[in-house]
């Protein structure tokens, strides 16, 4: 039995936080899910699966939320008890009774289950707290990036969303860049940590704006992550490029970015 089960739409860069950490920690993580459009035909539960007719008859359909607005999703009472915000990614303890939500918390759960003494969550309480600081800062950026990426689905999205997100990205990238000065290899301490993993995952997700270049061009806008970001934030850019080649990152990040770049092209 897996140490942690995660139900989510797939692929999902934020789930990479947990799977990358799991490789480094020797933790067994089981993933269940499908493409976002297909989750409306899944039973949202610890035993998540494609819906059967019996599932539809005995489980109440509920209104979808962020990313699934306007649709009906079939969620069990047990799912809602474990996940009060009723969102994915949704992680569960092996017995299905304890739900863990929000990708950073799911990643922390993996680090706490560490079998290899990887020190992904730091070597001291102070390092752990500093890692938490980076993870909290990432949440601020993640909120803006999610609003932006969802808004880009509408060709007539409000242009001010682009401006707010550009500012949020600049603040986040500048903080990462500063933390790596003058020649640091990692964001916290002398080894890889959850802070580094989170940074890579959030940037991978944000790169999805590349899919929406026609929408941006229609409004006279350009992607926020463009060639200039490498010059503005050289330490952050180099850190990202170095980490995506790391053996623990490459199995997830490599195929994801390959498909993303191909689709954007």
Task: Write out key terms for the chains shown.
265 residues; alpha/beta; Glutaredoxin; Glutathione S-transferase Yfyf (Class Pi), Chain A, domain 2; 2 domains; four-stranded mixed β-sheet; 11 helices; 8 strands; globular
Helicity range: 40-55%
How many structurally independent domains? 2
CATH class of the largest domain: Mainly Alpha
What strand order characterises the main sheet? 2-1-7-8
CATH topology of the largest domain: Glutathione S-transferase Yfyf (Class Pi), Chain A, domain 2
Instruction: State Rg.
Output: 19 Å
CATH architecture of the largest domain: Up-down Bundle
Number of helices: 11
Give the biggest sheet: 4 strands, mixed
What fraction of the residues are assigned to beta strands by DSSP?
5-15%
Q: Please state the overall shape, judged from the principal axes of the Cα atoms.
A: globular
Weakly predicted, low-confidence segments: none
Q: Distance between termini?
A: 41 Å
Which secondary-structure class do the elements indicate? alpha/beta
**What is the succession of H and E elements?**
EHEEEHEEHEEHHHHHHHH
**Number of strand elements:** 8
The chain-level mean pLDDT equals: 94
Organism: Reyranella soli
Protein name: Glutathione S-transferase
GO cellular component, one term: cytoplasm
Pfam family, one: GST_C
